[in-house]
């Protein structure tokens, strides 16, 4: 029997790519998503891409804070594990609306953990973030680096990690893997699913993509006076397909009897500056990206990249793709879907 995995936030950017990898890997996936910042069209397309495995996908439009609805899903299906992506993730919005973030991200997670425990499902892969490293004093960031967060969004990730550690300490039947993502970029090579943020994008590459297709006049670069090779901030960008593979590796790792509550970085271990990333995208797309230089954003760190040694050794996982492939696949998605999932009449099928 195929293992059944509950995927919260599975209609989102990273969620949808991971659901596709799950289906292609012979798993059965049940997605729970409130569609707050995602599209049901993504799941239709995942089903199509998964071909004969598409029938192993089902979807419930449910908010994790809706306990009765969540209880009903758990009472109908026995899950082998949960991959928990669901959460609000805009840094700027979290500063303006902290209570919204604490309510959605923390209450949603606590409700999920309580319902999981009640139904005897104690295997969890949680989508954490490199934001928990705050402004790192030393790079690369290892899983032992000090953690602190610079904004309410980052704090929700930090608090959820601490909640998971406490849950495991209280009951050693739990097996929990916390994955700290660096900066996901790119799209499935088919160009059929990709990143489609609502409103103004918060991250560099979705913004670049919208400039390239003519939806925005220019890219604003925040800060060109950092102590880096070209003055712009340096980040560790990771292809979303590599990131999805990291979740499959983490699921397999949950079968290891020695797993307690473990943390792994998912990145490439390489830092790339904003201007390098823009130049690589221009080359991949043949489009010029007009730039406007602005002051630094409060809370933005100068240089953040991952040490990936632990994931390589213990999960047997390593990122395969570089920034050229990330930009190529991002442009393939953007050029085919200039308005994201609302682009074409075909998007409603």
What can you see in these coordinates?
It is built from eleven helices and 13 strands. The strands form four sheets. It has a seven-stranded parallel sheet with strand order 3-2-1-4-5-6-11, sandwiched between helices. The protein has helices spanning 13-24, 40-49, 67-76, 91-96, 98-118, 152-170, 204-212, 240-253, 274-285, 309-315, 323-336; strands at 4-8, 28-33, 57-61, 81-84, 123-129, 175-181, 183-185, 219-222, 234-235, 237-239, 261-266, 272-273, 291-294. It is an alpha/beta fold and 349 residues long. The longest helix has 21 residues, at 98-118. The protein is globular, with a radius of gyration of 19 Å.
Helix tally?
11
- DSSP strand count: 13
Given helix and strand content, the structural type is alpha/beta
Provide the β-strand percentage band.
15-25%
Helix content: 25-40%
Return Rg in Å: 19 Å
- Main β-sheet, in a few words? 7 strands, parallel
Silhouette: globular
- What's the N-to-C terminus distance? 30 Å
Unreliable spans are: 345-349
Average pLDDT: 95
Write the H/E string, N to C. Answer: EHEHEHEHHEHEEHEEEHEEHEHH
Strand order of the largest sheet: 3-2-1-4-5-6-11
Give a brief description.
The chain has helices at residues 13-24, 40-49, 67-76, 91-96, 98-118, 152-170, 204-212, 240-253, 274-285, 309-315, 323-336; strands spanning 4-8, 28-33, 57-61, 81-84, 123-129, 175-181, 183-185, 219-222, 234-235, 237-239, 261-266, 272-273, 291-294. By secondary structure, the protein is α/β, with parallel strands linked by helices.
